[in-house]
Every structure is written in C-alpha cells, then in structure tokens.
Amino acid sequence: MVDAFGETEQRRKEGEEAFWKVLKWLEEHQEFFSRSIPLVASENVPSPAVREALISDFGNRYAEGYPGERLYAGCRWIDMVESLGIELAKKVYRAEYADLRPISGVVANLAAYTVFAEPGDVMYALPIPFGGHISHGKKSWGGTAGVVRGLQVERYEFDMDRFNIDVDGTRKRIESLIKEEGKKPKLFMLGASVFLFPHPVKEIADLAAEYDAKVVYDAAHVAGLIAGGVFQDPLREGADAVTMSTHKTLAGPQHGMIVSWNKYAERFKSALFPGLLSNHHLHAVAGVTIALAEALAFYHEYAPQVVRNAKRLAEAMAERGLDVLYSDLGFTESHIVLVDVSRYMGGREAEERLERAGIVLNR
Question: Whole-structure pTM over 0.85, yes or no?
Fold first, then answer.
C-alpha cells in the first residue's frame, strides 16, 4: 500500500529543492555576467522600463487577433499599448504597416514565407557558411523555410572578398536553375546572422522584379541600427517587407516584428492569426513598445555610436596583432566584428578560453 502522506512529503521536498536550485542558478548567472564582458552580437540589455513591462500583468492575459479585433474581453489597455507600438514602429521604420505579434524573428520570417510563397516555390537566401540564419535554411539543414514551409531554398552566389552577395553571379545561378528545372524564383530573402555590411537591396529588388518575385529583408541583427538611421533603409531600397527580432541592436525583449506596406497588410494579419499564433505574449509587446519609444527618442545618437564602437574595437584588436577581417572595407558597418583565430587555436577553444576569462562571445 502506498504511503500517501509519505509520498506527498517527498514530492513537497523535491519541489522545494528544485525551487531553491533555480533561484541559486539564477543568482550565479547574474553574478557571472555582472563581472563579465558579454560580446555576443545577438544579445543586448533592455532598459529598466522594458524589464518592468516584462513582469507586468500583461504576461498573464490573452488577446488573440489584431487590436480592435480581439476575441477576448478585458483588452482595453492591451489594445492601447499595442496600437501605440504599431504607430511607433511605423514612424521609426517609415512603414505603412506594422505588426508586433510575431513572438520571435523566426515566426516573423515564417509569416513572410506564408504571405509571399507556397510550398515548393524557390527562395534565394544566404547559406549558413556565409552568415545565413537557420530560419532561411533548406530542408536538408533543418531550416525553417525548407522544413516548415516546404520551400526549395537556393543559395546566393557570394563574394568573400567583400563579404556580400554577388548579384551578377546570382543572376547566372537563377538562369541556370530555370534552364535545368524550369523553376523561377518566388522570394528573395536578405539579411544574415553575420551581417557586416549592407546588402544590395536595390539590386536584388530589381532582379526580383524581372521574375515577379518578392524581397524580404531580415533585419534581426540590425533593427536598432536601421531605427537610428544607419546601415541601410531596406523599405526605401525596394524590400516588400522587413522582419526582425526585437532584442539585438533594438534593445527590447525577445520577440518579433514585421514592417511592410499596406497592400500586404491583410495577408500578414491572417497569416499571423489564426495561421501562426494564438496569444502573442502581451508583456513582450509592451516591452517592444517601450523599446520603440526609446528608439524614436535617442537611437539617432545610440545607433551611430554602436557602429563607432565596433569599428574602434576592430581597430584596437588589429593594432595588437589579431587577424581582424575586412580591414580594407573598414572592418564593419554594423555591430559585428569578425576575427580569424585559426593561427592560434580553433574557434571552439577560443570561445571556451575567453569565457573562462570572463569574455563571452560566439564563434
């Protein structure tokens, strides 16, 4: 016979032990990062105001649908916050349409794939070895575009000397695929995880127009730079939509966002709900709205300084003998710096040794 009382006491004891373990590990994590130099390009530290939003009661509530079109009651203040966030996003990115509902940059990308392509369509994107993101990847790599949306992902030709897309080479690649398989491109995905220099948006948009294809720019890494008027302006340069996460150079919470043109608004709205989302993490929407207010107020100063800091870091490391890449191009025009450590050790070993020294970065 099971001792119900003894079993209950054991479960309570295990629960309490787990509770205190988590609090201890959170404290140790906080202490480690408080004495370290974090340099991971996909991370940032949001303001106290953004963090306050993340622990608000918004995180306990539901609000399916677009503001003013909710399927839940009690959304008065949620609608006000999200509507303000939409207007701020449109102003910051000079967009006709904005949507703060994607819960990540990957979900924002998946919404774009849903709007602009059908399973089996051809999409061009950067492969991972050239800095591409896994959400742009083909099925054989486990990439979102290939596995989830079923797209045939083809790669851009890439100019390693300039660390950028080779437009002429890509044109030849497209023509070759059309000749071999009869398949024209439907979507061109721009943006990268290793994003040193602006992509040729205008040139790719002109190329896309020849095939009646669309252009999506994944601004996850450079959203804050674009908000501050540096790096580039993809909507003005020809992109049909810009997707992003909201926690890298845009110092918001981990969430996603889309900005685009009114002609695509209804398609994005239905792709996101009911297509891809139910509730959309309302506390994060509030945090993004605050981050956008901060971007509107001072990113015209913040963003240029981020780029200056990256360039100066690159220069300082080069002066000390490290192999910092693309010195002939000014090292970088973003927040990212690439260093070749192969003459010293492998990338994994360098990453691990630097972490032990309190410098956190990724290979």
Answer: yes
